[in-house]
């Protein structure tokens, strides 16, 4: 384990401890609150943060641009579209069917985005994120329109706008383990994504098929996004801010940096979630709102710094 | 040996290579020369299976590049593309280490680490090994990419304009390293614009123009006014120095 990873792991321990301790209900003697609410919530937050941060890195390697994440490239909106469609066509469908539909739609949305940006000049680094915002805006408008027409706007709002963890209890978050598994798969394949980031030519020269690495990356991104979106709602900025900070400090040797990114994502989201529980105690601010403030500030700072540091 | 048979390549309607057949000898340094747009890079990237083959056949050390799995070819040949540029924030050592990837698939052993260290030393990058690529000069970055190709440790080394960004000391050092590799039994193919480097160091020269091979042979046969003047469409003189042709193209 490298030093940044160790430091973050040590930071996660008190954060997790705080998260287990903070809440409106006091921990009862039988441990019910702990096992049913606190522990699941803490695990859900850490899994979500880690998986989103890793998915952010993967997305950035796929498009070779630092300023994107699955939430700004239409993956989330596409997954929501898939989930909405299956909810309308087959309201009683099993959970795994819904997840499959959301993931497949997220995959399609990501593939369409990758096809869309292929012709953009690579030196114009801001065109890709702008194209992503337009694409996710288009898909998001479709989702909203359908949601409005079918009276499902509230559901759509939860998926796309307000990622938060106050509703997490045992039995309602376990799909996030699957998102964590997808992130672990990406960490396992870290070298492939790093090589893909060096360019198609280099990847081919080293005997890798860029297309198959891309497909793997798209599956990871779509899976993580769809599962997080459907379980707790989209959480912005984690996939953007954490990878950028880690890359600035450690570089893009993903074998070393991807575990750090995962831990960093878990730590940042956990800190924001605890903050959201504390500021207007005994009420809560959704973690996505806390992140919206912290994350956008961090992102602007990164954008502003970027040109000088290449 | 690299064997190219009836190779043709088009981009859209434009013919880029027409009926190229050629063999490049193993255990030698082969220089590919010709004016801008002659098709040198296209030929090299077809040999290195970076561009899909349209028509014709290419074998490298007996392996058909269209059929052999890419991962197997990566253990036989390494390619340095023209203008290799990388947007990732990598340290020199990390980039060079990726050259070993075809051999270990993510689990480098002591031998891999030794090859990486040797390649870094070969390219004079020891002092820069822990720097990020985006904090290097153009020539230093070029040397990092060369070191990556060296680290791959393949029988064949394909280099597209490796001298382009190098100063004359590093250019000569690179040619010396390539000669040492050749003497150790490896084979090198490189695209060169500096004809005198080709004249001094190459064992075999291939001259291309408009997507065709126009001359092929040892330097003494190719570097003559009769071949070079129509090739580059300019008058020039060729002298002999230390038993090798010396082209006076800059006067
Ligand atoms: N994408 C493309 N579309 C159309 N024509 C192309 C494309 N890429 C290359 N060409 C043409 O193919 C021809 C051969 O290009 P190639 O890069 O192989 O030349 P080269 O011999 O390596 O030249 P240089 O010495 O300048 O590197 C050129 O005439 C070039 O204009
Ligand atoms: Mg060229």
Description:
The complex is a heterodimer of chains A (about 300) and B (about 250). Chain A is mostly helical and about 300 residues long. Chain A contains 13 helices and no strands. By secondary structure, chain B is α/β, with parallel strands linked by helices. Chain B has 2 domains: about 170 residues, 3-Layer(aba) Sandwich (Rossmann fold); about 60 residues, no CATH class. Chain B contains 10 helices and 12 strands. A 6-stranded mixed β-sheet of chain B has the order 6-7-8-3-9-10, sandwiched between helices. In chain B, strands 2-1-4-5 form a 4-stranded antiparallel β-sheet, covered by helices on one side. In chain B, strand 7, helix 7 and strand 8 form a beta-alpha-beta unit. Chain B starts with a strand and ends with a strand. The model of chain B has no long low-confidence stretch (mean pLDDT about 95). At the A-B interface, helix 8 and helix 9 of A face helix 2 and helix 3 of B. Adenosine-5'-triphosphate (ATP) binds next to strand 2 and helix 1 of chain B.
Key phrases:
heterodimer, A: 310 residues, mainly alpha, ABC transporter involved in vitamin B12 uptake, BtuC, 0% strand, globular, B: 251 residues, alpha/beta, Rossmann fold, binds adenosine-5'-triphosphate, binds magnesium ion
């Amino acid at each position: 384990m490298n030093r940044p990873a160790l430091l973050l792991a040590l930071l996660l321990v008190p954060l997790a401890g705080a998260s287990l301790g903070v809440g409106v209900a006091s921990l009862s003697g039988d441990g019910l609150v702990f096992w049913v609410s606190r522990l699941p919530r803490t695990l859900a937050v850490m899994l979500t943060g880690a998986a989103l941060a890793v998915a952010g890195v993967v997305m950035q390697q796929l498009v070779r641009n630092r300023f994107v994440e699955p939430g700004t490239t239409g993956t989330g909106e596409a997954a929501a579209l898939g989930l909405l469609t299956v909810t309308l066509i087959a309201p009683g469908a099993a959970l795994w069917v819904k997840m499959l539909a959301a993931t497949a739609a997220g995959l399609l949305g990501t593939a369409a985005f990758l096809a869309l940006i292929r012709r953009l000049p690579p030196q114009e680094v801001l065109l890709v994120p702008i194209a992503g915002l337009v694409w996710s805006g288009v898909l998001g408008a479709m989702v909203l329109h359908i949601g409005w027409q079918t009276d499902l706007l509230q559901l759509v709002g939860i998926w796309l706008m307000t990622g938060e963890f106050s509703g997490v209890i045992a039995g309602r978050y376990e799909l996030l383990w699957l998102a964590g598994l997808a992130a672990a798969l990406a960490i396992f394949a870290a070298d492939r994504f790093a090589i893909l980031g060096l360019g198609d030519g280099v990847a081919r020269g080293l005997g890798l098929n860029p297309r198959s690495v891309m497909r793997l990356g798209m599956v990871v991104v779509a899976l993580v996004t769809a599962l997080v979106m459907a379980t707790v709602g989209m959480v912005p900025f984690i996939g953007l801010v954490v990878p950028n900070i880690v890359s600035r400090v450690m570089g893009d040797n993903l074998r070393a940096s991807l575990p750090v990114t995962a831990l960093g994502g878990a730590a940042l989201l956990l800190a924001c979630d605890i903050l959201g529980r504390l500021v207007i105690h005994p009420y809560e601010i959704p973690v996505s709102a806390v992140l919206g403030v912290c994350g956008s500030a961090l992102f602007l700072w990164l954008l502003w710094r970027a040109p000088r540091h290449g | 040996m690299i064997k190219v048979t009836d190779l043709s390549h088009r981009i859209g309607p434009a013919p880029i290579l027409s009926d190229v057949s050629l063999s490049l000898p193993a255990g030698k340094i082969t220089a590919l020369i010709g004016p801008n747009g002659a098709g040198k890079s296209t030929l090299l990237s077809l040999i290195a299976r970076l561009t899909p083959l349209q028509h014709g056949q290419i074998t490298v050390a007996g392996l058909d590049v269209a059929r052999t799995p890419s991962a197997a070819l990566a253990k036989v040949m390494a390619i340095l593309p023209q203008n290799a540029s990388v947007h990732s924030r990598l340290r020199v050592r990390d980039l060079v280490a990726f050259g070993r990837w075809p051999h270990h698939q993510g689990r480098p052993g002591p031998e891999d680490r030794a090859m990486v260290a040797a390649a870094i030393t070969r390219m004079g990058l020891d002092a820069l090994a822990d720097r990020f690529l985006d904090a290097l000069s153009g020539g230093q970055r070029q040397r990092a990419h060369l070191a990556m190709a060296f680290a791959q440790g393949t029988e064949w080394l394909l280099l597209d304009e490796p001298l382009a960004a190098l100063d004359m000391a590093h250019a000569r050092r690179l040619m010396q390293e390539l000669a040492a590799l050749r003497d150790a039994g490896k084979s090198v193919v490189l695209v060169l614009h500096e004809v005198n480097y080709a004249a001094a160091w190459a064992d075999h020269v291939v001259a291309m123009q408009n997507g065709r091979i126009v001359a092929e042979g040892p330097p003494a046969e190719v570097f003559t006014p009769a071949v070079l003047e129509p090739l580059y469409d300019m008058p020039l003189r060729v002298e002999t120095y230390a038993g090798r042709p010396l082209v006076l193209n800059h006067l």
